[in-house]
Write a structure and sequence with these properties.
The complex is a heterodimer of chains A (about 425) and B (about 90). Chain A has about 425 residues and is of the alpha/beta class. Chain A has 15 helices and 13 strands. In chain A, β6, α5 and β7 form a beta-alpha-beta unit. In chain B, the strands form two sheets. Chain B has a five-stranded mixed β-sheet, with helices on one face. Chain B has a two-stranded antiparallel sheet with strand order 3-6. The radius of gyration of chain B is 12 Å and the shape is globular. In chain B, a hairpin with a 2-residue loop joins β4 and β5. Classes of the chains: A alpha/beta (about 425), B alpha+beta (about 90). Chains A and B meet through α7 of A and β4 and β7 of B.
């Protein structure tokens, strides 16, 4: 039985068949996957979902595939943890972390979107796949393409973190670094996609790829006992994740799977050095003014966010807000999460932690509200962002150990 | 004297499938007007009723987004390259 019906333009409503398509040919707006929700409601219950293997495919009827997935089978089903120590540090008593830093196979939320896109590329019998990426998508597309036996063409900005380049090339992907920022890479990628018959995950596979992000929202609701949180803080680059997480919650509500209606206030987080969506929200507008990114949060460094218009509209409509934080605040956020919860996140996670703290200080999120913080990537990929003191080196003698440990204890208490 | 325009796939039906077209230099607005004369209906596909560039289209002059320049008033010199590119998702 097929539940995915086709694509529809978000703005003008024009319908498109299931095929690789970048956007609406009339108004150029993004396309949304359409489903037969009545048919899904007849087969998908909490019990059915719970009986399935732990992965994002528990929600497969709500994803735009027609065949069973062949790659990314273990993606999703990441932990949602109650963050009591972080909560005490930032003044929130009902705080949760959704931890996609341990997603499979490449340690970021992009494993959700890439799993959908690469399987769709196989369904379409495309001869190769590719993407423009700030790093995490590159890692994930390269890995899933390797597992699918497809060549991958990956374009990245030339200033990307070395770990993210290694973690792409290792899979045999054909990686090209482009001089310029992500927006330059993206523009080139669009033009390449017009010339080559490949599946570009974030171009002509975009309507399928972006649906994978909904599973981040489905899992949060399931893990909270089939409830939507009062507030959720999500990092924003292109602006797609935040809109799809909310769409995911609304779909569960529509299917009658939630205890209560969804009244989640959606909060967007960006770096001060790349904040075009935050800027629009603060102006009370959906009109995005592009910026030239300058931040250590390279995975969020998209100055011209394609889904920024819809993200800003969603945030305002939900009663939420958007905030940005400086590079030093981002590093503080990374350390704070590591030292309170034992989770090492990349710069984007530092952004959401630091923004959450700011929103609580501002009184936009109340101390006792159920708030979920989205951690979307792993700190091992952006180690250069955090400068830590080197460990002392000693001879293998107990007296030297005792002296060294006194120094380390003094250093630790001075955090 | 002229400059090169890169036409995105959805607009090539208007340009007889041409990927690139040559047109006389001027401001971005002038160029869109000339394209509209040559390919009737072209401007309406790129611009909203108020004349502004559609939300999901970006226009670049020699690789720079015109919103960092003078928008529709940006002068596009001879030999330059103007690209009309639909917005795409990020990652």
């Amino acid at each position: 039985m097929r539940f995915f019906e086709g694509l529809k333009c978000r703005e003008c409503g024009r319908r498109y068949p299931k095929q690789p398509t970048a956007g609406c040919e009339d108004c150029f707006a993004p396309l949304e996957a359409e489903y037969d929700y009545d048919a899904i409601a007849r087969v998908l219950s909490r019990e059915v979902i719970a009986s399935r293997e732990k992965s994002l495919w528990r929600f497969r009827e709500l994803l735009p595939l027609d065949d069973a997935p062949l790659v990314g089978r273990a993606s999703g089903a990441t932990p949602l943890i109650r963050a009591e120590r972080l909560g005490r540090a930032i003044g929130a008593s009902n705080l949760y972390i959704k931890n996609d830093a341990v997603n499979s196979p490449t340690l970021s939320f992009k494993d959700r979107v890439s799993a959908v896109a690469i399987n769709k590329a196989r369904e379409f019998k495309l001869e190769a796949v590719g993407c423009a990426s700030t790093g995490n998508l590159a890692n994930s597309v390269a890995a899933n393409a390797a597992a699918a036996g497809l060549p991958a063409y990956i374009l990245i900005p030339d200033n990307l973190e070395p770990a993210k380049i290694t973690a792409t090339s290792i899979y045999g992907a054909r990686v090209i670094a482009v001089r310029g920022n992500y927006d330059d890479v993206n523009r080139l990628c669009t033009q390449i996609a017009e010339r080559h018959p490949w599946g570009f995950v974030n171009v002509n596979l975009r309507p399928y790829y972006s649906e994978g992000s909904k599973t981040f929202g489905y899992e949060i609701a399931e893990q909270l006992g089939w409830r939507a949180p009062a507030a959720i803080v999500v990092p924003m680059a292109g602006g797609s994740l935040i809109t799809k997480v909310h769409k995911g919650l609304k779909e569960l509500e529509r299917l009658g799977l939630l205890e209560e209606e969804v009244h989640t206030r959606v909060y967007g987080a960006q770096a001060a050095g790349c904040n075009p969506i935050v800027d629009a929200v603060k102006r009370g507008s959906c009109d995005i003014r592009p910026v030239k990114p300058d931040t250590i949060a390279k995975s969020l460094a998209i100055g011209n966010p394609a889904d920024g218009y819809h993200a800003a509209g969603l945030i305002a409509g939900s009663g939420g807000w958007a905030e940005d934080v400086t590079d030093p605040e981002i590093v503080d956020g990374i350390r704070l999460l590591a030292r309170t919860e034992g989770i090492f996140t990349e710069t984007a996670g530092g952004v959401t932690v630091a923004v959450t703290r700011k929103l609580i200080e501002q009184g936009r999120i109340q101390p006792d509200e159920l708030v979920v913080v989205a951690i979307t990537g792993n700190g091992l990929k952006t180690q250069d962002a955090v400068e830590l003191a080197r460990p002392p080196v000693i001879e293998p003698r107990i007296a030297q150990f005792e002296r060294a440990i006194t120094g380390l204890t003094a250093r630790a208490s001075g955090i | 004297m002229s400059l090169k325009i890169n036409i995105p796939t959805p607009l090539r039906r208007l340009t007889g499938n041409a990927e690139t077209v040559e047109i006389e230099a001027g401001t971005v607005a002038d160029i869109l007007a000339r394209l509209d004369l040559r390919y009737p209906g072209f401007r309406d596909r790129v611009c909203e009723e108020g004349g502004q560039v559609r939300r999901f289209i970006n226009i670049y002059v020699d690789g720079e987004d015109i919103r960092f320049l003078d928008n529709l008033s940006t002068a596009v010199p001879d030999g330059a390259e103007l690209s009309i590119v639909p917005a795409i998702a990020g990652g």
